[in-house]
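Private note to self, pasted from the team thread so I don't lose it. Backbone tokens:
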């Protein structure tokens, strides 16, 4: 039985601006290019050394021997630094009109007014706007762009930068260390609870380029924070690359929720890396929605080093035609009484490939710990692929562990039932898919849940899919 999905306008995300940059570095990756980026950033000596170590490691490391085929990605066709024609501003009216129009169409200023304690906006390789409510500054919260943090808080940044994610972690982390630019730095002092979320939004506009933002967040003892990350890019007929890095430090009895809605264009290689270290009694929550990109490889990792620390991951991936979304989660339980919950969902259609890849490692230190893993896949036709590749490394007998995996299709009976209640065929299918995604959307602030549902509708647009019982 064929279900035709009504076409939905994607122009809110796929619009593109003229590639009107101040400077775009030549394509490729050489020592000269790395040193030029470092010079343009006015790096201190220690940061320049990190960049050169990153380049050295990148040249030695091979592409991953597992996962999606990355052979189409050619660094000789990628420019690693693009500077827009503006500096950073903390006043929205001072942002250039073409850049301001981009973010206004994406709803960033409105979101700031309605529900956010602070906003950062990055355009290509530079943060162009940053703002935080004054009451947060008065109680010691730091929220700034990463490069300002290197200059203004060098001791703090140097202590944590590229420590939870080592430079040699994998080839694209090494690349990131060599050419990183932009990103966000957050420090929440002891006992401070940031009641409204902070958000950073990353927009890649320039074709045949990469975005390599670095996000570093430290939530000190007894503090709490919700941080939201949004990403998008227009579609081009040549490949772009995203290889950002997120480092999260959750101190004793602290709490951090990190929410991401990624909507990269389908010419993007999304090779991002995210890790968190959690101390005694701390909690990290990952909320992840992955839409778009040609190939995505992303596995947020929690390292539970403190007694009673917790990790929760709730994520959804959507793969359509020409897309391979290889996502998942990694957790290391490395202390007594730790716990993790993983709830991953994926949707594939029109020949898309979704792979759930995970690692749960309980070391000998993880006495009296608990781990629960659930992954569910929904395939909307007979051409699509869904794979589950879990690795469970349990080194202690004193642990409660469960793993559940489900793969299914939408039945004609369900569609017929909804249609008999006066619901159109296309909306019936969309309702079922949105219901499948509900565990993720319900964890997001209202406006971001609406955005995610809109993205689901967009991904279901215009193509015919076959559904069988």
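Design output:
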């Amino acid at each position: 039985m064929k279900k035709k999905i009504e076409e939905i306008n994607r122009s809110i995300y796929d619009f593109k601006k003229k590639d009107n940059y101040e400077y775009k570095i030549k394509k490729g990756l050489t020592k000269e290019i790395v040193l030029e980026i470092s010079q343009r950033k006015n790096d201190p000596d220690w940061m320049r050394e990190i960049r050169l170590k990153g380049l050295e490691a990148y040249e030695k490391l091979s592409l991953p021997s597992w996962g999606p085929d990355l052979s189409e990605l050619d660094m000789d066709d990628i420019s690693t630094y693009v500077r827009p024609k503006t500096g950073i501003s903390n006043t929205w009216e001072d942002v250039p009109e073409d850049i301001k129009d981009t973010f206004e169409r994406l709803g960033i200023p409105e979101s700031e007014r309605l529900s956010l304690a602070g906003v950062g906006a990055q355009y290509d390789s530079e943060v162009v706007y940053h703002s935080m409510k004054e009451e947060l500054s008065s109680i010691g919260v730091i929220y700034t762009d990463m490069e300002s943090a290197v200059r203004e808080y060098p001791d703090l940044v140097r202590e944590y930068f590229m420590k939870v994610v080592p430079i040699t972690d994998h080839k694209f982390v090494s690349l990131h260390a060599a050419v990183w630019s932009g990103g966000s730095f957050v420090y929440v002092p002891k006992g401070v609870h940031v009641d409204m979320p902070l958000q950073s939004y990353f927009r890649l506009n320039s074709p045949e380029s990469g975005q390599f933002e670095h996000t570093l967040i430290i939530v000190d003892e007894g503090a709490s924070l919700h941080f939201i990350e949004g990403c998008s890019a227009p579609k081009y007929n040549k490949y772009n690359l995203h290889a950002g890095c997120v480092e999260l430090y959750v101190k004793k009895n602290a709490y951090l929720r990190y929410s991401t809605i990624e909507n990269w264009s389908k010419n993007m290689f999304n090779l991002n890396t995210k890790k968190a270290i959690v101390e005694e009694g701390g909690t990290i929550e990952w909320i992840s929605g992955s839409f778009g990109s040609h190939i995505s490889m992303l596995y947020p990792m929690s390292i539970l080093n403190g007694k009673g620390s917790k990790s929760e991951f709730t994520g959804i991936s959507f793969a359509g035609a020409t897309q391979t979304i290889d996502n998942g989660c990694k957790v290391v339980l490395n202390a007594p009484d730790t716990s993790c919950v993983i709830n991953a969902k994926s949707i594939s259609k029109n020949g898309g490939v979704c792979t759930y890849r995970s690692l749960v490692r309980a070391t000998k230190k993880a006495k009296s710990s608990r781990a629960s893993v659930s992954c569910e896949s929904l395939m909307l036709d007979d051409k699509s692929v869904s794979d589950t590749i879990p690795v469970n490394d349990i080194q202690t007998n004193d642990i409660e562990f469960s793993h559940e995996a489900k793969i299914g299709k939408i039945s004609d009976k369900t569609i017929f039932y909804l249609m008999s209640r006066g619901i159109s065929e296309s909306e019936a299918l969309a309702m079922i898919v949105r219901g499948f995604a509900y565990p993720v959307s319900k964890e997001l602030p209202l406006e971001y849940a609406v955005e995610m549902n809109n993205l689901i509708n967009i991904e279901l647009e215009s193509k015919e899919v076959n559904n069988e019982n």
